């Protein structure tokens, strides 16, 4: 995959060994926590607030929607899509 590890509420995907050993990654107040909700859909939360959504446009990139439901844009990689909600 072409992305940084996704942090989920009950486990961590990816290869960051220091975090993989802990059952849950504690987020800094401004850090986004990403949860893969299903095939091609990721939800971002900042603390307990919805921060945005990424949808995979199969064969056409990724669409980012902000916390108000507005489309931010479409991007060629998941990493670049994720960067839009920082």
Q: Spell the H/E element sequence.
A: HEEEEEH
From the N-terminal CA to the C-terminal CA, the straight-line distance is 20 Å
Question: What coarse outline follows from CA principal-axis ratios?
Answer: globular
How many separate structural domains? 1
Could you explain the architecture of this structure?
12% of the residues lie in helices and 38% in strands. It has 86 residues and is mainly beta. It has one domain. It has a five-stranded antiparallel β-sheet. Strand 2 (41-46) and strand 3 form a beta hairpin. It is globular. It starts with 16 loop residues before the first helix and ends with a helix. The relative contact order is 0.19. Residues 1-25 have low confidence and may be disordered.
SSE map:
Layout: H1 17-20, E1 32-38, E2 41-46, E3 49-57, E4 61-66, E5 71-75, H2 78-83
Antiparallel strand pairs: 1-2, 2-3, 3-4, 4-5
Region (Disordered): 1-26
Q: What are the salient characteristics of this protein?
A:
disordered N terminus; 86 residues; 5-stranded antiparallel β-sheet; globular; 5 strands; mainly beta; 2 helices
What's this model, at a glance?
Residues 1-26 are annotated as: Disordered. The protein is mainly beta and 86 residues long. It has helices spanning 17-20, 78-83, and strands at 32-38, 41-46, 49-57, 61-66, 71-75.
């Amino acid at each position: 995959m072409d992305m940084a590890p996704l942090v989920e509420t009950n486990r961590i995907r990816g290869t960051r060994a220091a975090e993989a050993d802990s059952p849950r990654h504690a987020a800094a107040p401004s850090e986004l926590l990403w949860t893969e909700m299903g095939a091609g859909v990721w939800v971002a939360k900042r603390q307990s607030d919805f921060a945005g959504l990424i949808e995979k446009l199969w064969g056409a990139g990724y669409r980012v929607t902000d916390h108000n439901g507005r489309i931010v844009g479409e991007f060629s990689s998941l990493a670049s899509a994720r960067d839009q909600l920082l």
